[in-house]
Amino acid sequence: MESWIKVNQMEKNMNDFKMGPIELEFESGMIHVIVGGNGSGKSTLFKQIMNLVTFDAGSIEVFGSNVAGEDEGWKKRIAYQPQTLVGCDEFTGRQLMQLISPLYPNWNQSLFDDIARSLSVPLNKKFGKLSQGVQQKLAIALTLARDTDILLLDEPTSHMDIPAKSRVMDLFVEWMERGEKLIILSSHQTEDIRKLADYLLFMSNGKLHGKFVKDELVSSFKKYWLEKELSSQIKLPGEIDRKNNRLIVTNDAEKAEAYLLSHKIGWIEAESLEMDEVISYMVVNKNGGVL
Ligand SMILES: Nc1ncnc2c1ncn2[C@@H]1O[C@H](COP(=O)(O)OP(=O)(O)OP(=O)(O)O)[C@@H](O)[C@H]1O
């Protein structure tokens, strides 16, 4: 596991929006999912990594190269899929493939053909005439077939139907198995997060609020239905929510349970949280500062 992308104290001021300072590393072999509300800065961060948007302070390195430097060789090792492909409307999928493939030394034609076929993408239709979901499917085929080391995907499945999303998630997992790879994607989709993420990163208002190992994060959250009401004077370790003083939600299940046991406070049921509940609490935490 190597750090392939380093963001060092990066800052940017854009009118009334301030990004950073962001300090962050992305490691090979891992799928990183960035979660954050609309306008939190996810797309801007991706564009900064690709040197498409400048920054005022700090630096970003991809494979040790400063992205703002003269040498752009690193760009051949990273495939970026923006939320919307601009300037493609008049081209068919096949024409786009013919334009893009020569730019990437590892272009894998059979991978492109397989993905396009398995997602039923019509390659003879103009991009602008495709539905948004099919445009995204074509974009996935054009991106994965570059067979780069890194994939940087900005909400890649947001317009897809459920079976397509599921197939694309399988494609990402299969792609990771092609060698030492790194995927960074932004998503609002609970399924993407649950199935794909090794790491979860939370953003709001241009700030990064932590990078978590997904399984550790999810298992740290638990809710307890207590046998009796808990005095409002007592707060359980990691407590982030309660209802009727009987249902307590904690983000430090281990310490909360130890507290309940040592104080002989019984519970009727303890339950792990669903991914969407964890995400909701994390988003509330970011805005409300509970964590
Ligand atoms: N070129 C620009 N000039 C000025 N402000 C910008 C520019 N691009 C983005 N912004 C602002 O930066 C903020 C972050 O936008 P960004 O698109 O990065 O958010 P996001 O997290 O990707 O949102 P979404 O989930 O809606 O795609 C927003 O307030 C946006 O208005």
Automatic annotation (TrEMBL):
InterPro entries: AAA+_ATPase, ABC_transporter-like_ATP-bd, ABC_Transporter_VariousFunc, P-loop_NTPase. CDD domains: ABC_DR_subfamily_A. Keywords: ATP-binding, Nucleotide-binding, Transport. Residues 2-230 form the ABC transporter domain. SMART domains: AAA. One of its GO terms (molecular function) is ATP hydrolysis activity. It comes from the Bacteria. It holds the Pfam family ABC_tran. This is ABC transporter ATP-binding protein. It comes from Cytobacillus horneckiae.
